[in-house]
Design a protein that fits this description.
Layout lengths: L2 H11 L8 H25 L5 H23 L1 H5 L1 H24 L4 H40 L2 E6 L3 E3 L5 E3 L8 E6 L3 E3 L5 E5 L1 E10 L10 E6 L21 E4 L6 H15 L7 E6 L2 H41 L8
Parallel strand pairs: 1-4, 8-10
Antiparallel strand pairs: 2-3, 4-9, 5-7, 6-7, 7-8, 9-10
């Protein structure tokens, strides 16, 4: 019996039809299945998986650092210990710069250096932005309030005349009230719009004397209501603060030193035009409730902190997501964060 007959007989004994290539077909399917499984394994190996812990750190740590720096520079700590706050800022900034530099120059694979490099850059950015915005918030909103809180409060002040112990009536001089933060004038006080004046230096600096309406002669003109861009340039007109509120009889001290010289020049013009003398001019915002106004100024500072917290949170999330997504695409052949 030849070999062909033996194979045919063997197939017949196993119940396999003659001429069938079933064994060869089964082998092909097994090989194809094996190749597909191997391809899936290779794809899984090539997939970049991001460790959630570094991603969360990248999102929250720079954000928290920015809020800390902003808070330290915005509020009472900056007012009470300015040098300590400055040194704290410098120390944190130097530490972040050193961390970023070491991340850039470290001798390690690029994929392993990405995470510390990102953190270093984000930390430096957070310190710089927090320091800058915190200082702006402090000087424009919080510092004037803290200064006024440390100054004196005077009540029932006659802005025009003062009665001495000897009984003599003399003009009220601002020199006596140089430490005034809040001044509550008497009920006869008002803004003399007919003696208002302006000085233009880019902005229009407006002044008007605060006087006693019953004073006819020998009156003092050292108390001035002020405002910016709220009066006319060529004629007497004053619309600053609560000028049209009959209950407004009080003044909140101007604490922005950079504005005071221009208001002083406006007073000099008023002296020349209206033939009055102001020996020691003091500048106030004219309003009804100085305490409420201070609370509003502080509220603006706290509001800035809340807005910054919300905006920078989403900015930090977006930045970290974009950076890690870029890294995932670039280093897709391995997992550098696991």
């Amino acid at each position: 019996m030849d070999e062909g007959d033996k194979e045919t007989r063997g197939r017949a004994e196993q119940g396999i039809p003659s001429g069938s290539n079933k064994f060869m077909l089964y082998g092909a399917l097994e090989e194809e299945s094996s190749r597909e499984m191997q391809d899936q394994v290779d794809k899984l190996k090539r997939r970049q998986r991001v460790n959630i812990v570094p991603l969360l750190n990248a999102m929250f740590l720079p954000w928290v650092l920015l809020l800390v720096i902003f808070s330290v520079n915005s509020f009472a700590l900056h007012y009470r210990f300015p040098f300590t706050v400055f040194m704290f800022n410098v120390g944190v900034l130097i530490s972040c710069l050193l961390f970023a530099y070491s991340s850039f120059t470290a001798d390690r694979p690029e994929r392993e250096a990405f995470y510390p490099t990102y953190l270093g850059v984000a930390f430096v950015f957070a310190v710089v932005v927090g320091w800058l915005l915190g200082d702006l918030n402090f000087w424009f909103h919080m510092q004037p309030c803290y200064n006024i809180e440390h100054l004196a409060t005077y009540t029932n002040v006659d802005p025009s005349t003062t009665t001495m112990k000897s009984g003599n009536v003399v003009p009220t001089r601002g020199k006596r009230y140089q430490d005034a933060g809040k001044v509550y004038f008497n009920h006869d006080s008002f803004i003399d719009v007919s003696r208002s004046m302006s000085f233009k230096m880019g902005e229009l600096y407006c002044v008007a004397p605060i006087v006693n309406k019953n004073c006819k002669k020998n009156c003092g003109y050292d108390f001035w209501a002020v405002g910016i861009n709220c009066c006319a340039e060529d004629y007497t007109d004053f619309r600053c603060g609560e000028y049209n509120n009959p209950s407004a009889k009080n003044g909140l001290r101007l604490m922005h030193d950079e504005l005071r010289p221009n208001f002083r020049l406006a007073v000099l013009e008023a002296e020349g035009v209206h033939k009055i003398i102001s020996t020691h001019p003091i500048f106030f915002y004219w309003l009804q409730d100085p305490v409420k106004e201070m609370a509003h100024m502080k509220h603006q500072g706290y509001k800035g902190f809340v807005l910054l917290m919300i905006v920078t949170f989403f900015g930090s999330m977006l930045s970290a997501f974009c950076a890690f997504n870029w890294a995932r695409n670039k280093f897709s052949s391995a997992n550098p964060y696991a």
